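Module 6 notes. Inverse folding takes a fixed backbone as the condition and produces residue identities as the prediction. Think of it as a translation problem where the source language is geometry and the target language is the twenty amino acids. Below is one complete input and output pair. Work through it position by position during the lab.
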């Protein structure tokens, strides 16, 4: 036993203290959860829009990859109601796209299931700039506020509220 009581073994530290960033573990977490659904190739999910094409990816996504033995793997796609029928007709083309992306036969059959497709959040329209009258009316209302931090915070709040309104507003006293 050495003088510091560690039995001659050195304590290895990563050099970084504190919590780890989520992005450091995201790939391994994603791979673990996707492998539970049968996805040996994580890229089939993460690069779906690139593999299938953007228009097809907007209407469906890969849900499960089932190993079918001698017949090959079956890819289960969740598609919105309107695209499910059209996707049935495009199945050979989609299989060809997937297999050519990976350079080997990854999928031999596609099963289409109707379901809800998660949509990206809708982006709001850009805020309109305030007119000179609105800026001066806002400044006049804020003159009575004594603290500079509070005045600045209320000015930001006022600009935000006024820029989201559809019509320019001029306050009258």
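Target side of the pair, the amino acids:
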């Amino acid at each position: 036993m050495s003088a510091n009581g560690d039995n001659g073994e050195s304590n290895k530290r990563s050099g970084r203290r504190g919590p780890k960033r989520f992005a450091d573990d995201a790939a391994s977490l994603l791979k673990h959860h996707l492998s539970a659904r049968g996805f040996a190739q994580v890229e089939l999910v993460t690069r779906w829009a690139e593999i299938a094409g953007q228009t097809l990816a907007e209407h469906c996504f890969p849900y499960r990859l089932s190993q079918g033995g001698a017949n090959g793997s079956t890819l289960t796609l969740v598609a919105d109601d309107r695209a499910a029928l059209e996707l049935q007709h495009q199945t050979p083309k989609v299989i060809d796209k997937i297999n050519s992306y990976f350079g080997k036969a990854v999928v031999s059959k596609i099963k289409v299931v109707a379901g809800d497709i998660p949509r990206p959040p809708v982006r709001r329209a850009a805020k309109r700039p305030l007119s000179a009258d609105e800026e001066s009316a806002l400044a006049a209302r804020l003159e009575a506020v004594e603290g500079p931090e509070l005045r600045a915070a209320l000015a930001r709040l006022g600009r935000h509220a006024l820029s989201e309104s559809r019509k320019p507003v001029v306050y009258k006293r």
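Reference fact for the lab report: Strands lie at 60-67, 73-79, 109-114.
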